[in-house]
Design brief:
The chain is about 65% helix and about 0% strand. The chain has helices spanning about 10-20, 25-45, 55-75, 80-100, 105-125, 130-140, 145-155, 175-180, 190-205, 210-220, 225-235, 235-265, 280-290, and strands at about 165, 175. It starts with 8 loop residues before the first helix and ends with a helix.
Length: about 290
Amino acid sequence: MERIKTADPDTLEQLWSDYCRTKSPRLRDQLIENYLYLVRYVAGKMALSVPPSVEIDDLVSAGVVGLIDAIGKYDPSRDTKFETYAVSRIRGAIVDDLRSLDWVPRSVRRKARMIEDAYGQLETELGRAATDEEISHRLNMSVSEFRAAVEEIVSAGLLSLDDFVGNPDGERTTRIIDLVCSKDGDSPSAPIEQEEMRQILAEAIINLPDKERTVVALYYYEDMTLKEIGRTLGVSESRVSQIHTKAMLRLRGRLRAVSDSLLSAITEPVGSSLDTPATVSDERIARELVTTH
């Protein structure tokens, strides 16, 4: 950790003593300047695990808020180093700021990932589509609780055109809107990868339960709205939305299971774009695949 010192230990101890006694903004600013290296350190570490769309300057700004809070609440008389206490507060402030950018609650994101993993693991074991009852049993919840969770996850299926997706090199540096507008730029390996994805998706779609396969076909191939599909199937629009969400969770779980099995054979695993929700290119492939219902 690179540190830029602005005060020697004795001066710093006196600075803390004076600040705790007077709460002077000038002394607080000196403390902030002295410990700013902690913010840069924490922000730099966290920048490695956040989407490329998040600027490190934004992480630093949020971290400074945490540092100020730590300075205001730190008690030098306690047997705790300020650096240890401050790092925790800085990291917490950055995490809180990142969470505020996501309109979907953390619990919903966690449920979606949990259900996707359950679909992928269970259907790999069974060699067929898992029923709601089997998934509920795997997740140790009732069928009604499982369906309620699926209803919550419906809202998490929204995508921002400014989100980043993986490119053929495994780097998440391409925005969805750029994929939508781009007319060329495919790498030589893109057709091969697309065909592999097409085959995996084709098999996964074929193995969907009848009702889910029908909804996927009507939605992506016939371009029907959820309301129109509901009228066709004689169910509510909300029920169609649940069926569609379950189909997407099932497909993503299957794709993740395939991805994990491939990555396990590699000595040095790399990030996979299959860890993200379906991209625009995935949806286009799905539309091409579903030709019957």
